[in-house]
């Protein structure tokens, strides 16, 4: 039997994993997905898995609230209130007002009526015995976020803060939920440490370790390095998987010119005794060659003077604009991160196959994309 050589442009799936907190990670991932519009025909398709922080999860009014999972799901699914960065668009709060009228709930943490529907469905499914991973998959069937959205763990590992002094009804030394410190007190009261309650018994959610080990690139977006990314890394087994994967791991600085554009990462860094600078965040993660997790890091041109520090720390770094002004600008950041990870989103080179001379390939049935 004779054969003819044919070159077939084969669609390759580029597997990208994103470790994400809430707003910053969600907006970065939206830009990452927008790269699909720049991929030429027969180019590399993007297959994205987002591993989300669940340290902010909590119970409120008998409902299980998962702030970061929901922010990612709403952002990628087109339902987010972009102006505030969290919650649903065109939201109302009649139910929360009624709950307050009964003297229940927290005045400082208001749930919108549309958002409540998500929490009710999640809680109902959890009470029926579904895992958080299964519930998240179910909720995403409605929102179709375009990614595989995975919680970091199915077991609760809630982030709390230990108060350094009395605050209202809380005594010095008490643990309060991170969200209370963050939302009620706007991170303005002194705390001595962060404590992930339940972290010792938590396990990576199904699919998390496999996604990390099978990835072509892993991106740490501009999420809070202490209570978002740091909490994910604290789940037993995740840091080890990151150190073992063959994929390059690239971080994107959440700090520009000594401050955060959104959120309170600077306050969290201060609690652990770390400067609010791009290089400090990178060295907090550490170079993988020195026992850390980074193979590369992006910082803003405003911090270009810190490139030398990163080089000395063994972390290859590049300076590119990091302000996520819109989706197009964010897509540029994502492309730079992938490039630093050694992944180019471009047309896949043709792959050579040998077909029998009398096969469909030779007869022209596969003429589209087959060039003898």
Give the topology:
Layout: E1 3-8, E2 13-20, H1 23-34, E3 45-52, E4 58-60, E5 63-65, H2 67-77, H3 94-101, H4 113-127, H5 132-143, E6 148-151, E7 158-163, E8 175-177, H6 178-184, E9 191-197, H7 208-214, E10 217-220, H8 229-234, H9 238-244, E11 248-252, H10 265-271, H11 278-285, E12 296-299, H12 307-312, E13 317-319, H13 327-340, E14 351-356, H14 360-363, E15 370-371
Parallel strand pairs: 2-3, 2-10, 3-6, 10-11, 11-12, 12-13
Antiparallel strand pairs: 1-14, 1-15, 4-5, 7-8, 7-9
Helix pairs in contact: 1-2, 1-13, 4-5, 7-9
Structure characterization notes:
Helix content is 33%, strand content 19%. With 372 residues, it is α/β, with parallel strands linked by helices. The strands form four sheets. A seven-stranded parallel beta sheet has the order 6-3-2-10-11-12-13, with helices on both faces. The longest helix is centred in the first third of the chain and has 15 residues, at 113-127. The chain is globular, with a radius of gyration of 23 Å. The protein starts with a strand and ends with a strand.
């Amino acid at each position: 039997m004779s054969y003819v050589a044919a070159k077939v442009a084969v669609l390759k799936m580029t597997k990208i994993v994103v470790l994400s907190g809430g707003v910053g990670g969600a907006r970065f991932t939206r830009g990452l997905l927008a790269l699909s519009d720049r991929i030429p025909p027969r180019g590399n398709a993007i297959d994205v898995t987002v591993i989300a922080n669940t340290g902010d999860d909590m119970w409120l009014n008998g409902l299980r609230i998962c702030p970061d999972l929901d922010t990612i799901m709403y952002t990628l699914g087109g339902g987010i209130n972009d102006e505030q960065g969290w919650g649903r668009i065109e939201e109302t709060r009649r139910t929360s007002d009624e709950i307050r009228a009964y003297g229940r709930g927290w005045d400082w943490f208001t749930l919108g009526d549309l958002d409540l529907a998500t929490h009710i469905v999640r809680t109902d499914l959890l009470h029926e015995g579904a895992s958080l991973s299964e519930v998240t998959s179910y909720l995403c069937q409605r929102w179709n976020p375009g990614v595989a959205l995975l919680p970091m763990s199915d077991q609760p590992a809630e982030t709390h803060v230990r108060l350094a002094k009395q605050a209202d009804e809380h005594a010095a030394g008490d643990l309060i939920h991170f969200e209370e410190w963050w939302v009620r007190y706007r991170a303005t009261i002194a705390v001595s440490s962060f404590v992930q309650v339940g972290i010792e018994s938590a396990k990576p959610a199904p699919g998390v370790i496999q996604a990390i080990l099978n990835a072509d690139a892993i991106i740490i977006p501009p999420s809070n390095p202490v209570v978002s990314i740091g909490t994910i890394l604290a789940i037993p087994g995740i840091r080890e998987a990151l150190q073992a994967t063959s994929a390059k791991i690239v971080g994107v600085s959440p700090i520009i010119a000594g401050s955060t554009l959104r959120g309170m990462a600077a306050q969290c860094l201060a609690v652990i005794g770390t400067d609010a600078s791009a290089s400090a965040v990178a060295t907090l993660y550490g170079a993988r060659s020195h026992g850390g997790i980074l193979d590369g890091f992006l910082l803003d041109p405003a911090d270009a003077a810190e490139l030398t520090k990163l080089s000395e720390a063994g972390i290859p770094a590049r300076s590119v604009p990091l302000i996520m002004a819109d989706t197009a600008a964010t897509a540029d950041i994502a492309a730079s991160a992938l490039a630093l990870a050694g992944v180019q989103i471009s047309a896949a080179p043709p792959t050579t196959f040998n077909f029998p001379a009398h096969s469909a390939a030779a007869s022209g049935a596969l003429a589209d994309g087959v060039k003898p």
